[in-house]
Amino acid sequence: MRVVSIGDLVTDFYYKDDKLLGVNGGMTSQNIIANLAKMGLKTTVFACCGNDDQGKIAIKSLEKLKVDIDNIKIVEGTRTRCFHVSYYEKNGKLFLTSKKRCPFCNSKKWYDESLLETNYVLANIKTDDILVFDNLNIKNQIIIDNTINKKIIDLGQYFELENMSNDEIIKKLKQKFEIINFNERVSNYLLKRLNLKNDIDLYKIINPNLMTITRGEDGATFIANNKVHNFELELKGDVVDSTGAGDAFISSVIKDSIKNDFKYDSHKLKKWYLKSNKLTAKVVSKIGARGHINSLFKLKKVNETCTCDKFDLIERKKIKRCNININNLEKRVINAVNSPACKKLEEIGFCKDTNCLFIGTGGSYAGSIFSSKVINALYGCNTYSLYPRDILYRNNSNINKIILFSYSGTTNDIVCSAREFDKKDVYIITKGELQNIVLKTDFLKENILSYRTASNKGKERGFLSFEGAVAPAAIFLKYYLEKVNYDIDINDFIKKSIMYWDRQIEGLVDKKIIEKIKKNNLVNIFRGDYTDAACYDLESKIIESGIFNCIIHEKKNFSHGRFINYENLGNNFSIYFKQKSTTKYEIELLKYLDNDYILIESKYDGILAEFDLLIASQFIIYYIGKVLDIDVSKPIYSDNAMKIYFYKGGL
Length: 651
What we know:
- This protein is an alpha/beta fold and 651 residues long.
- It has 3 domains: 7-117 and 289-316, no CATH class; 149-285, Ribokinase (UDP-N-acetylmuramoyl-L-alanine:D-glutamate ligase), CATH 3.40.1190; 322-628, 3-Layer(aba) Sandwich (Rossmann fold), CATH 3.40.50.10490.
- Helix content is 39%, strand content 20%.
- Strand 16 (356-359), helix 13 and strand 17 form a beta-alpha-beta unit.
- Helix 12 (340-346) crosses helix 16, helix 13 runs antiparallel to helix 19 and helix 19 (532-545) packs parallel to helix 22.
- It is elongated.
């Protein structure tokens, strides 16, 4: 299933105080598709544009969002349609004008009749496509009348209706659309034009399955199953530019409609509205209809030609999220060990009689492994590090405390795993916002250990977590050092470990090493002796980034026949983690591996080595990505994969 927009492409130029801010793709139907693509839906565009710089921008703006652009036709000898949006301040408020003529040279790049090839569109639409329109021009009407697909239309203007008779208007709209969204100006125009008393009368005449009306600061109206639902505005946002609000609003409604199989349950419509309202509050705080999705494209003037006619695109330097996350790691981890979470950890009251579960998933699993080792080392009590679903398949009657690890604090799997336990025995280590976690979960406020602070609110972006793996471990390391009276400054220890492994791993991971791994696309990782947190974290990051496969071997267990895989299948490149001390068996194992490995050896033993090597694992994945020139924090996941990624049900 695809959501398909149909119509000619438009490029929007944005100005403020007579200065060009930048450009972006525009037009309602394409803006809707851009929003849906950003939400992760499969999208495509049937459109056309000129073979010019403006057309290239319109296409690029969609391509960047992973919209399928294969059905966009380039029409030679035609100039791409352009709008010019100018902002100006008056009495402290921002106003705008939108025109087809450039405010500098007064030229107009616009054609009236659509250049869309209807035969091509009809031949290439799939039966399960959902079609999105923003007007009722002749060519759109041909497609509407000759397809059985679900159709959605967003009408924000009524000028094209003024030349139609009442019967023509009704004929074009009646029973043609699954969803119709009106701007209030349009719905009021139709009420007056068709001599109707209220919105429900309009709904009954044109008979869509869902009719929505956006009313700006007065909220919105949903009409379905002959019932009217009026919703007041909940979130207003800091209004800068409202031009893209309606497009974003209906995009959110479309997504929820698809998710609910186009069933319009009365009790769900309020939730749909609230989600739409939340998105529009974000939209209006940015300049441009797609300002919340991506930044404006910046242009450079070419000679004396007006920029609306000819320009060079200023390409932004691509900043990898992984780079940002690793560069901020030291600051964020040190902030965590100086946060109130450390004091609250002291209050949990671990002791030798405490049986504890430590639960994490993804990047947070490393924190659960490390913390379980710390508490076991200090008290000799039974500690178990588990994935969330493992809890369901064991007898937990003698468990005294359960410690959860979730970067956001609201991870579905983590929340579900603790539901059968007494709330007072459940604690969560997180960087989530306290109030948000309280509202969305059943966790007791006093049991939420958040290392989010006034100076450390920023969160990592991307699918791989660096801070989320290391910061919780650092909090437990501080707890450990204080309990055993180690004369070590935690801040200094973290800084030195990060500095050391940054230099070491940069020298170890080079093109030769990557070529060795790429021969079989497989890495063996050897664990044991205070290396588990690092090993499982690295394996998770390599697998989740989709670059190689991994096999984790416990060092001694490898001797029980696992070497046959190593020898016969040629999967013989390894990453070997070890603490400072070396056992007799390790000496023999390293001889067997015959230098075909990267040795990651800590300067410490025990718990210090466990934490130190966890730092090392962050730099291993970072430098692998750097050599491959990819952003490992931003893997490309399929639509089907994202369905299970965002699964919110029971375990």
